[in-house]
Amino acid sequence: MRHPDAPHTRPEGISPHALDNDTLVHELEQLHRTRHETFLYGSEEALKRHTLRTGQLEAEYLHRFPNRLVTAGRTRAGARARAAAARAEALPE
């Protein structure tokens, strides 16, 4: 644990703008990995902080990478296509 008087440590964490790309992605991965556990077992304050920090880092990521790769299956059109394919597959021949 970092010392509370350390100049680079703040309760809200390092500004997302100050993180390099690799660190930003790493921090997002860690937050996404710990989300479920924080949701189930964290205090109300921990959940609020986790939600706030995740939002800040995700917003910074989207700002830096507005043209990120989006998989077709992760869109509404892709979801509709999956649903249609599942219905067609369920039909008797």
Uncertain segments = 1-9
For the sheet with most strands, the description reads:
none
According to DSSP, the number of beta strands is: 0
Number of helices: 3
Query: Compute the gyration radius: what is it?
Result: 19 Å
Structural class: mainly alpha
- Provide the succession of SSEs: HHH
Helix content: 55-70%
How much of the sequence is in beta strands?
under 5%
The rough form would be described as elongated
Q: State the end-to-end CA separation.
A: 63 Å
Mean pLDDT: 87
Summarize the structure.
This protein is mostly helical and 93 residues long. Helix content is 61%, strand content 0%.
Quickly list its features.
DUF6158 family protein, DUF6158, mainly alpha, 93 residues, 3 helices
SSE blueprint and pairings:
Elements lengths: L20 H21 L2 H21 L11 H15 L3
Helix pairs in contact: 1-2
Pfam families: DUF6158 (PF19655)
InterPro entries: DUF6158
Protein name: DUF6158 family protein
Structure notes:
There is one protein chain. This protein is mostly helical and 93 residues long. The protein has a domain at 9-66. The protein is built from three helices and no strands. It has helices spanning 21-41, 44-64, 76-90. Helix 1 packs antiparallel against helix 2 (44-64). The longest helix is centred in the middle third of the chain and has 21 residues, at 21-41. Residues 1-9 have low confidence and may be disordered.
